[in-house]
Amino acid sequence: MKALLLAGGLGTRLRPLTENLPKPMALVGNKPWLEHLIVHLKQQGIGDFVLAVKHYADVIKKRLGDGSSLGVRIEYAIEEDLLGTAGAIKNAEDLLSDRFLVVNSDIIHEISIIPLLEFHRNHNGLVTIGLTEVEDPSQYGVVELDMSGRILRFVEKPNKHEAPSRFINAGIYVMEKEALQWIPKHKEVSIERETFPLLIEKNIGVYGKTINGYWMDMGTKNRYRQLHWDLLDGKFTLPLKEKEQGKGIWLGRNTEIGPGVLLVPPVLIGDEVHIGERSVIGPYAVIGDHCELGRHVRCSETIMWDKCKVHDSTQLNNCIFGYGLEVGSRHILHEAVMNRAVGVIQG
Ligand code: GDD
Ligand code: MG
């Protein structure tokens, strides 16, 4: 069975981080999420992937290629224009197996797909949607189910008071290729707003199955931060390349911590990082590979990607920096989300 990973969205809510990068390539625990996702699915027996891409497709192709570096096979379904979630699946039709898995690539999860597949096999539907329960369903696709698990209603991003339940589309589906006959070709179509409601109306067999395990959509800055704090707090695990050296302190290879530096757990610091004397890092700091932090820097609740440079005596709190951002000395930054392509702060 193949897995189709939807990875073509614009990632507008994560801008400027996604200004020159597809959202699923955002680093999670110092590695592009898409790589973690492929490895996670590979561990569950999936070896063939189709990537539905558009926005900065080359970034993905350059990094993952044919998949051999991860021990899988990857093919690409490239969209000239954005086709929407259903249009992207239709566009990949020729590359798909009769039964396939669809995954929104911006979902951080630790989910076993076996129960979902079993449920799908036992119910003979055309689609089985993985469901998860959330406090506020208004940001998601919300479902109403009957006792058998059949979906009676699917409402994408309802008003708070109109949500039929707190069970939402987790962005993981098992689908039969047969279902694709209901999606028009070469057209922008949303699976959530058009295809699912249509299949439900025609009573064609759309089921929902609750999935267990950690789940988070990384699509907003707050959620992107939160999932990192959850990772550092051990609410879910990822195969990190950094080693835990003390409780809640992960360090990469050849990282130099200067004299008098205080690491306040939890912190995750990548490879070849240099931290100058008397800096205080953490709690909740994720520092990418090859970053350089000067002396007397303070950095808490902050994520920075590879090759960032922070000069002496700068204080960072609640910031997210894309690749290679440089911040001068003696700045005080709170809640700054920045990308080198958008702005470099010089001191
Ligand atoms: N190839 C391609 N083409 N991919 C797309 C397109 C497109 O036109 N539009 C979106 N995607 C990809 C995105 O890259 C992302 O991985 C996934 O489809 C979902 O898009 P989002 O933009 O992140 O949607 P959302 O988070 O608002 O809502 C979706 O996910 C929720 C779960 O997190 C919906 O599926 C909701 O129903 C669901 O609850
Ligand atoms: Mg999303």
Automatic annotation (TrEMBL):
Domain Nucleotidyl transferase, first and last residues per copy: 2-231
PANTHER family: SUGAR-1-PHOSPHATE GUANYL TRANSFERASE (PTHR22572)
Domain of life: Bacteria
Family membership noted in the UniProt record: Belongs to the transferase hexapeptide repeat family.
Annotated protein name in UniProt: NDP-sugar synthase
Annotated ranges, domain Mannose-1-phosphate guanyltransferase C-terminal: 264-342
Organism: Collibacillus ludicampi
